[in-house]
Amino acid sequence: MKTIRQLHPLLPVLGLAAIVSLAGCATATKHDPRDPWEGWNRGVQKFNDTLDDYVMKPISQGYQWITPSFVDRGITNFFSNVDDIGVIANDLLQFKLLQTGQDTGRFLVNTVLGVGGFIDVASRLDLPKHNEDTDQTLGAWGIPSGPYLVLPFIGPSTPRGALGLAGDTAANPINWINPAAIPYSVGTLKTVDMRADLLSATKIVDEASVDRYEFIRNAYFQQRNYLIHDGNPPLDEQFEEEMDLELEGLSPTNFNTENEQEPASEQL
């Protein structure tokens, strides 16, 4: 579905992915080596999109309509605060000790002073929100992501991402509560709340992309790479080669050579 795993983690790179998708109009479509299961993936995305259009989107629109904005924000803050438990664990697994201290402080401040996390007091105290998950930890350890994989009901992922999702689910303390109806109910609320927050983002994706499937796939890889490298991803080799070719004709040497070859009358 056009939810959680498809859009929520992709917002920082939507603009870049839009440029990539639009630029693809001028070139022949190539098979992406990261996506050997494209036939399967397109079929699953179509299933997820249909389910989203007829179920998740209407429910999320109704939720957004009946829920006061301050309540909606409080629910989002609560789930973000719970997620910080997993963030702290992954900070430790990646040996980010300073960030571990910051995220631990953020969790304690929001839990105590923020009424269980419903109020984001920590951000006002310059304790920023970090995003760390098991997939990022595995990537930081050098484990390859594997090919692109669209999961039913979940969205874009990879084999490493699927394993990371299982780890994140196990690390969520709400999922330890009995009876099982409680975590299922809370999980449903979280899903609806996050989908409601992404209603405007869905419109951006639909309007900006030429091939919606490629748009989401490229944005997913770009965003995961961005997070794993803490905002400083290495340039893709193919991208570097293309940039070198583009800049080759703009070098000062070429400009001087062209000017030297111009007739004197044109130079004047």
UniProtKB/TrEMBL annotation:
Name recorded for this polypeptide: VacJ lipoprotein
Stretch list, region Disordered: 245-268
Entry keywords, A to Z: Lipoprotein, Signal
UniProt similarity note: Belongs to the MlaA family.
Chain ranges passing through the membrane: none
Single Gene Ontology BP annotation: intermembrane phospholipid transfer
Keyword NAD set for record: no
Signal peptide limits: 1-28
InterPro entries in the record: MlaA
One Pfam family from the record: MlaA
